[in-house]
Amino acid sequence: MSLATVFTRLFHVLFGESVRRVAAILPLLIALLVIPAVSSPTSSGDRPLFYARVDYLLTAEDTGELAVTAGSVKELYAPPEPPGYKLYYVEVFFEDGLPRNVVPVTYDSVIEERGEIKGLVSLSGDVAVTCKDGNATLKVKVKAVYLRREWVPITCSSIKLTVKEPEVPFSKEDLTVKVTIENHAPYAIVGVKGPGGVDLTDSRKQESLSPDAIQVDPKHVVLSMRELPLGDYEILLSEGEDKMLPSAFIAAHEAFHNETVPPGASRTFSVRPRKGWKQLAYIVILYSLEPARNSKSTAAVEADIVDYAYSKDEIITVKGASFLIPPLNLRFWIKAYIAFGSSFRVINGMESPLSVMYVPVLIKEAGDWTPEGVFIDVAEDEIETFSTAYIVVQVPSHGRIVDVITPSGDSYGEYRSALKPWFSALRGVGVLEDEAYIQVKAGGTVEAGEYFFKIEWKPLTLVTVDSKERPIPKATITVAGPLSLTLVTDPEGSASAVLYEPGIYDIEVSFRGYKVATVKLGTIIEGKIVIRCEVYDLTVVTVNLAGRPLEGTEVSLMTTEGVTLVTKESDEKGIAALVQIPKGRYVVRAVYKRIEKMQEVEVDGDKVVEMKLDVLFEIPFLGIPVSSFEAAAVFVVTGATALVLKLLGRGREYGEEELEELEVGFGD
Question: What's CA 122's distance to the chain center, in Å?
């Protein structure tokens, strides 16, 4: 039924038969006055986040003898874990090596030297050996190491730590603190300050302690609290892309250089790096042989950062059969350092010449990363001019190195550390959970070809949630970095990925065609990352001109280009809840029966929008809404009708001819 028909019948009810004479002009009036209702518009970080891994290690040691008889199995267990710590590993060292008739039964890795087992390592805390034949008595030292790990965000140019006394029965002598910054992070360690601001990377200060008291490189610091005081420590950092290091590389030593520094002088040493290689450090050895003096050596090494690595100082006495040749007492001392940077400086504060022997250490990125591990190809001509060369792999904490396989097929995954006979040379190898190395050249002995470091990676679960922490299904996650991936979230808002190549990743989340989150992923510290997206709820309340709710209003959310994203009908309170709407500008279209309104909305948070539709009243029994504009037209028509009737009355008065009655149908 058309609106014109409704009005005609209404007029017949109100005015009776007298109105029929003007019925012919009503369609024209309505066509001019009733205009269709048309609505008018009503007015995440750009830096990757990196963490330093801080490991607090407590060590419990014990020594004793272990008697093993033929056919028996002897087990050694770690003591209970201290509060707040978990067992990291157990090492059992054999003072005289493991006899040939004693074989390991339970262990995870081996410590070996020149084919002789020196120790066994267990991650579970259980080490067992058995005797094949005969009996054996073993002198053993058992070392249980417990771990408490913290992740410290890198937010400025230093990392601050407070080292406290551990709980009884442990003391600070049992505590070691290790700080690790992952290779791909654009930070390098340039200094360590102890309590009171003491510079622990000054070689002079380091030499007052044992070489194991502090160990440092651009990505690691190890502090032994056996010699260091408790208190506040500060790890100084330098930032820049040049501080990033590869996670898989070839490390090579050039030939040794021998130089001399005159008494009371200093000298700077450097070697021009080879093309395609990065100058990482120098191994520096200072030594002197002179008549014995009652004084200390006063030599120092300066560089970007210095690690005091070794020291020996002794008196050598040369004597004959009698005092015919009086004994000659000589003092021999040697100190070794690792000096990081492109150059280093030696200061000789003694009254005699100082001998300096140094070897540059160069690295070159290598390797093809796969979900199973990293393959590294070593070409013989690439390392032929170096004295020694190694392959090194260091992985983030979500990876674990489980094996190292050589081109010839030999597996070295069971060796925590080993010095293996290798033709006329010795081959060094070490496999830890997060780093491993294998020697590929020693003098004239070399094994070129493809090496494989097998790595187990923990999957990373990305969970997308909205402003109310609800999962967002069917969101698209784009991962860009060393690997490129596209993922779609499941009904729980989750998607999994294996980021098997270390590096910085850019993560972007799109939902319903809108970008709702961007994340830069630097350090992965856990297996699940929750991404909070700019996805909100838009509640549209539809009411009439009197403010009463309009139930059954069809509410549609459209893009500014006119694409409908979601449509919902309002409830008895006039509410249409549009959930999980991406941040952006939209057009809301509300249609109540035959009356429509459109309104622009900016969604930048959870928002409630009231839409007042032009509904003045609804015709009883028919349920047809009437707008204020249409109602005004009715009143205009009503006034015009009254005027026509009045004119008709006057026409009869003056004897004018009665108007011809016309029947006009308004049609549906």
Answer: 29
| DSSP of 570-581 | --TTSEEEEEEE
Sheet with 368-370, strands from edge to edge, namely: 368-370, 373-378, 449-457, 399-405
Q: Which residues pair with 460 in a beta bridge?
A: 497
Supply the pLDDT for residue 26.
35
What pLDDT score was predicted for residue 6? 43
What residues contact 329, with CB distance under 8 A and at least 6 apart? Answer: 291, 292, 315, 316, 317
Residue 192: per-residue pLDDT: 97
pLDDT, tens digit, for every residue of 508-525?
999 999 999 999 999 999
Provide the whole-model pTM: 0.82
Count the neighbouring beta carbons within 10 Å of the beta carbon of residue 357: 15
Cα 93 to its chain centre, rounded Å, is 37
3-class DSSP state of 17: helix
Tell me how far apart the alpha carbons of residues 482 and 502 are, in angstroms, rounded to a whole number.
7
CA angle 202–333–345, rounded 5-degree value: 40
3-state secondary structure of 2: coil
Q: Sign of torsion, CA 189 149 404 110? A: positive
What is the sign of the dihedral through the CA atoms of 544, 548, 552 and 556? positive
Which amino acid is present at 107? Y
What residue type is 456 in one-letter code? E
315 vs 331: CA distance, rounded Å: 5
305, 218 Cβ separation under 8 angstroms: yes
Quote the pLDDT of residue 635: 56
For CA atoms 252, 257, 263, 265, the dihedral sign is negative
Neighbours of 296 (CB within 10 A): 11
The single-letter code of the amino acid at 371 is P
Instruction: Answer for the pair 185, 154: CB distance below 8 angstroms, yes or no.
Output: yes
Q: Compute the half-sphere exposure of residue 525: CA atoms within 13 Å on the CB side of its CA.
A: 16
Determine the pLDDT at residue 492.
Answer: 97
| Cβ burial 608-645 (10 Å sphere, 16+ → b, else e) | ebebbbbbbeeeeeeeebbbeebeebbeebeeebeeee
Residues in the chain: 668
57's tokens = 């290690």
Q: How many Cα atoms within 13 Å fall on the side-chain side of residue 270?
A: 12
Helices (H), 520-572: none
127 φ, ψ (degrees, to nearest 5): -125, 135
Segments in 618-662 forming alpha helices (H): 628-653
Q: What is the Cβ-side half-sphere exposure of residue 366, based on CA atoms within 13 angstroms?
A: 26
CA dist., res. 288 & res. 606, Å (int): 75
According to the model, what pLDDT value does residue 661 have? 42
- Tokens coding 293: 């003096």
Query: Can you list the residues of the chain whose pLDDT is less than 50?
Result: 1-44, 640, 643-645, 647-648, 650-668
CA dihedral angle for residue 563, residue 569, residue 573, residue 574, rounded to 10 degrees: 40
Q: Are strands 158-163 and 231-239 parallel, antiparallel or unpaired?
A: antiparallel
Judge if the upstream peptide bond of residue 169 is cis by omega within 30 degrees of 0. yes
423: which 2 tokens? Answer: 């033709």
Contact 177, 56 (CB under 8 A): yes
131 in Cβ contact with 70 (< 8 Å): yes
Under 8 Å between Cβ of 339 and 301 = yes
CA angle 22, 24, 27 (to 5 degrees): 110
